[in-house]
Automatic annotation (TrEMBL):
It comes from the Eukaryota. It catalyses: indole-3-pyruvate + NADPH + O2 + H(+) = (indol-3-yl)acetate + CO2 + NADP(+) + H2O. The lineage of its organism: Eukaryota, Viridiplantae, Streptophyta, Embryophyta, Tracheophyta. It comes from Aegilops tauschii subsp. strangulata (Goatgrass). InterPro entries: Auxin_biosynth/cation_transpt (IPR050982), FAD/NAD-bd_sf (IPR036188). This is indole-3-pyruvate monooxygenase.
Length: 167
């Protein structure tokens, strides 16, 4: 297993290059050892890596807290963002930083509601990737989230038009 992992790591570095220069830290052990020891399958989406290289996606350091218009990083630096997408790694640590007990379970870091109802929380909080149903489950959640956001915008626009017409 160690020899196969060594080959995987060698060829992934040869094909993908040094991903650490983009803020993506590599695991110390190979993918087969990770799968054997944790049951998790490490995945790097080539499309996402291309967007990171092109600067369309920005990998940032640890977040200390959210601010009204963005985030404050662990190093004290603040930055404004329209959207924040969190990739929390191979084990969900969401409850450690979200400080929200209704949507996510403290015991395993997953949404309390089971699939297919695990994608929407309160106040615009959405979750995808927690289905335990692979990419198909994540795709289902992402579609539901996109439809919900589109519906909210449609309703807000209709309210604004109605208010404007009544004025």
């Amino acid at each position: 297993m160690k020899w196969v992992d060594a080959l995987f790591l060698f060829f992934s570095r040869l094909i993908l290059g040094d991903t650490e220069k983009y803020g993506l830290q590599r695991p110390k052990i190979g993918p087969l050892q990770i799968k054997k020891s944790t049951g998790k399958t490490p995945v790097l989406d080539i499309g996402a890596l291309r967007k990171i290289r092109d600067g369309e996606i920005k990998v940032v350091p640890a977040i200390n807290r959210f601010t009204e218009s963005g985030v404050e990083f662990a190093d004290g630096r603040k930055e404004d963002f329209d959207d924040v997408i969190l990739a929390t790694g191979y084990k969900s640590n969401v409850p450690s930083w979200l400080k929200e007990d209704e949507f996510f379970s403290q015991s395993d870091g997953f949404p309390r509601m089971a699939f297919p109802h695990s994608w929407r929380g309160k106040n615009g909080l959405y979750a995808t990737g927690f289905t335990r149903r692979g990419l198909m489950g994540s795709s289902y959640d992402a579609s539901r989230i996109a439809a919900d956001i589109a519906n909210q915008w449609t309703e807000a626009l209709a309210r604004n038009i109605t208010a404007h017409n009544n004025a």
